Amino acid sequence: MTSSTPVEHLDVLVVGAGISGIGAAYYLQRDHPQRSFALLEARAATGGTWDLFRYPGIRSDSDLHTFGYEFAPWRDPRSIAGADRILDYLRTTAAEHGIDRHVRFHSKVVAASWSSAEARWTVEVEHTDTGERTALTCSWLFCAGGYYRYDEGFTPHFEGRERFAGPIVHPQHWPADLDTTGKRVVVIGSGATAVTLVPALAETAGHVTMLQRTPSYVLPVPAEDKLANRLRKVLGEERAYPIVRRKNIAKGRLVWRFCQKHPERARALIRWVNTKHLPEGYPVDEHFKPPYGPWDQRLCAVPDGDLFRAIREGTAEVVTDRIATFTEQGVLLESGRELAADVIVTATGLNVQAFGGIGLTVDGAEVRLPETVAYKGVMLSGVPNLAYAIGYTNSSWTLKVGLLCEHFCRLLTHMDEHGYDAVRPELADPGMPTRPLLDFGAGYVRRAVDQLPRQGDRAPWLTSMDYRTDVGLLRAGNVVDPELHFSRAAVRAGVGA
């Protein structure tokens, strides 16, 4: 760019056009229609996760009446739905509200620098289709890209990997031409991706083995919400949706609280359910009894018990063991057993990357994320005019995102009413004890805990994982706080504030 090139300015720049970005855009244009905004999407399509992942059977394990937006009823009869239906829902919602017109594809934000004097961000954008880099400015940066890397998944080192003669595939990069029909497939992993893949592959593969080092809690759930479908017929879509949504929020919250307060009873209940769905005499404790408590990591939901059905029918099996080495024909286990395979799938997790890996500076100083503390789960200490959307780890992601977006818009309204240009959270007590932002036992979180912001031990620095608490804090609570500092731009006002 030359000095004479005009630099575009936007009031709000939303990074990411997935479920969080589309939601943020809706609330922004609803509550602040006069503001200019754009969604920058590094890829060539909207939908985020639901467009990126193409592995067989991909679906949400949250019900879509809560995973969907509060403002856009979920109309499909399936409450646990596949990626194709979710993607159609997201794109239909974006089109109905004109949000798709604000999306700019092949636009990856690589860096953003804040100027307190001007109260604005200067944002460096890489155009992924051409490699060109341009700049624009914005008053607010809203990071809506989630917390994992879109360009690579996590695969640990496997001894002898290069010896295996067949394809080794990570679900995040599923080849469109991969045919597993009639083949022996070993899926390494025990999380949500693995328990989704195994029954889907088992429909056509010769045999599928889910090889896990440690079991996960797996719970069958109905694919259809019969009450929701009946209410829609009686009350209609618009009236039934909020009722079903409230019912499912309460149900999810009840299950989570029960698991937290009574882990042993919850463990026994889950085991009883598993036993009912598995063949008589099946070694439930070997393959479905984790060493941790329920909801210390996320429960894996299987619609209509499809994983258990595949095990009963003999098209799939679960093996709990450790890998000694890959061989030419498959995987040799520490027990001495060898699993023959034509295809190996490494469903071994994700790589976490906060804020899309954007390099942030404030008045020339680098922002080191592990040194920041999350404010109400929506801003970072010492970083002005930056908001982010990270959903729940123990419930539907979108429940949290909706509340965060509402709070963000209320904060903008307050700033408009008082003539403020900038706002920055600042710790009153720099010595406050902190803990990880994602206080969760999943492996992908533990691997990245030292790269993420922290959270405190008191409000407003706690990151709540409870919907009812967040309704009070983010929807009903005052946006003003003693540890939130407002200011006016020196360039505009002529003086500091």
UniProtKB/TrEMBL annotation:
Q: Give the enzyme's main class according to its UniProt record, as a single word.
A: oxidoreductase
> Which cofactor names does the annotation list?
FAD
InterPro entries linked = FAD-binding_MO (IPR051820), FAD/NAD-bd_sf (IPR036188), Flavin_mOase-like (IPR020946)
- Is Kinase tagged as a keyword? no
Q: Which Gene3D superfamilies match?
A: FAD/NAD(P)-binding domain
Q: Which GO terms describe its molecular function?
A: flavin adenine dinucleotide binding; N,N-dimethylaniline monooxygenase activity; NADP binding
**What EC number(s) are associated with this protein in UniProt?**
1.14.-.-
Keyword terms of this UniProt record? FAD, Flavoprotein, Monooxygenase, NADP, Oxidoreductase
Q: Name the family the entry cites.
A: Belongs to the FAD-binding monooxygenase family.
- Recorded protein name is Flavin-containing monooxygenase
